[in-house]
């Protein structure tokens, strides 16, 4: 009996640590607005980073930019005893058949991989875009500083690498600079295909595209609001999965939506001053971002970005017209805000990389019964599991219960018709996996 009581006490302490893990607060404090400002300034200083711009110059064009990014990752790796594997990943894109591609070119991405100690083939990716554009995406000669779109996201990925490289994680983290975004998401498509060929188990892609503007074209100014875009279900689901959803639910419970909820919960736990806005779209209306190619292959991927855009400062030639200053200039970036959204990414990746994998084969039962029943496969490295549920109209997981180190459980008094449910694995450090929505039914 004494041993049982001791085990329960240890379990309670371990589980509770996720709410007050000092390492997460240390990560938030370590993110530097000054370093982000320096990196955005450097990137904008290359004049243009258009996909088809100069690749030979050391001071101008996308070639200089990607070499500088690679050098920054290598410098970070040196400071952490070569903890990062830094490399280029590239694909050749032909102009023929691509109206937005004026000439054949190499799309070159820059990756820095921090290998996990326990689950090295599980990857969490934070991406920013290397390239920029002016009013004409094919114009590679005129200036396109791209300070916010998207030097801010790229600088955030570099800063996250600086901060997180000081820690050891169970899963692997990838800090990624992607090219060719403005011409058709070529960089993301190439890297997603590369990851699939390598057999990577990607558990989340955090695409950061414009994280530095706080003043919207609508006049709203906010340094705490930000948006999380996520698609409801993967495009790779089968016809049978679609058919079952009509009867059992899950229209807004795909892997990307669960990742978005994870970002939301982590942010509200550790950075409660922030206002993460769950946007139920793949991306902005009729537009796209570099998480989409990963979604296309069935991976969980979301877009994190500012809440209030200013369209006069993106995809614009630098000019003054009718008293309005156009252009994506350094002067319009709020570096403290970029720091906050970088911290959101960093604590999400740290929490995921310190957590066990999500449960598999989660089944739910309890049809025409006053209880909800669950079964799942146990996860290596988990000390227990947490059942989540929410009203069917709620965007976030609002209720939960820790149920210990078991593989099945019954929630008495809860009618499954009125709620959606999911299961998360809990590690010995208290960190939780992404929630798994039930994918099977039992009687």
TrEMBL record:
Taxonomic superkingdom: Bacteria
Chain ranges of the Peptidase M28 domain: 109-304
A GO BP annotation: proteolysis
Gene Ontology CC: extracellular region
Key words of the record: Hydrolase, Metalloprotease, Protease, Secreted
Subcellular location per the Swiss-Prot or TrEMBL entry: Secreted
Gene Ontology terms, MF aspect: metalloexopeptidase activity
A Pfam family: Peptidase_M28
TM helices/strands, residue ranges: none
Major place of residence: secreted
Cited CDD domains: FN3 (cd00063)
UniProt entry tagged with the keyword Electron transport: no
Protein name: M28 family peptidase
């Amino acid at each position: 009996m004494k041993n049982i009581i001791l085990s329960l006490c240890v379990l309670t302490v371990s589980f509770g640590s996720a709410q007050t893990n000092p390492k997460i607060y240390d990560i938030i404090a370590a993110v530097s607005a000054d370093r982000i400002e320096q990196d955005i300034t450097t990137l904008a200083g290359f004049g243009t980073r258009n996909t088809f711009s100069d690749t030979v110059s050391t001071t101008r064009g996308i070639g200089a930019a990607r070499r500088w990014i690679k050098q920054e990752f290598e410098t970070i790796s040196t400071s952490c005893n070569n903890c990062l594997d830094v490399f280029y990943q590239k694909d050749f894109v032909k102009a023929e058949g691509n109206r937005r591609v004026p000439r054949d070119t190499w799309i070159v991405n820059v990756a820095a991989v921090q290998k996990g100690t326990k689950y090295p083939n599980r990857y969490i990716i934070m991406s920013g875009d290397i390239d920029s554009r002016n009013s004409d995406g094919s114009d590679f000669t005129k200036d396109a500083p791209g300070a916010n779109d998207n030097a801010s996201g790229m600088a955030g990925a570099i800063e996250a690498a600086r901060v997180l490289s000081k820690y050891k994680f169970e899963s692997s983290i990838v800090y990624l600079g992607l090219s060719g975004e403005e011409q058709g998401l070529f960089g993301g498509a190439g890297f997603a295909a590369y990851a699939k060929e390598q057999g990577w188990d990607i558990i989340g892609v955090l695409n950061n595209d414009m994280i530095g503007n706080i003043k919207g074209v609508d006049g709203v100014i906010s340094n705490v609001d930000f948006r999380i875009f996520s698609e409801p279900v993967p495009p790779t689901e089968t016809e049978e999965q679609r058919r079952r959803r009509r009867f059992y639910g899950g229209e807004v419970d795909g892997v990307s939506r669960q990742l978005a909820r994870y970002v939301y919960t982590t942010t509200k736990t550790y950075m409660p001053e922030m206002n993460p806005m769950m946007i139920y779209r793949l991306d902005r209306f009729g537009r796209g971002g570099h998480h989409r190619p990963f979604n296309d292959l069935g991976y969980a991927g979301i877009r994190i970005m500012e809440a209030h855009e200013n369209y006069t400062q993106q995809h614009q030639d630098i000019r003054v017209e009718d008293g309005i200053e156009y252009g994506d200039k350094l002067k319009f970036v709020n570096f403290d805000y970029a720091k906050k959204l970088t911290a959101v990414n960093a604590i999400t990746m740290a929490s995921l990389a310190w957590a066990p994998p999500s449960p598999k084969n989660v089944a739910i039962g309890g049809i025409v019964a006053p209880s909800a029943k669950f079964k799942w496969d146990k996860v290596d490295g988990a000390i227990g599991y947490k059942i989540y549920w929410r009203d069917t109209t709620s965007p976030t997981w609002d209720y939960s219960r820790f149920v210990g180190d078991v593989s099945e459980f019954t929630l008495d008094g809860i009618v499954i018709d009125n709620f959606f449910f999911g299961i998360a694995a809990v590690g010995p450090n208290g960190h939780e996996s992404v929630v798994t929505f039930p994918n099977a039914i039992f009687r």
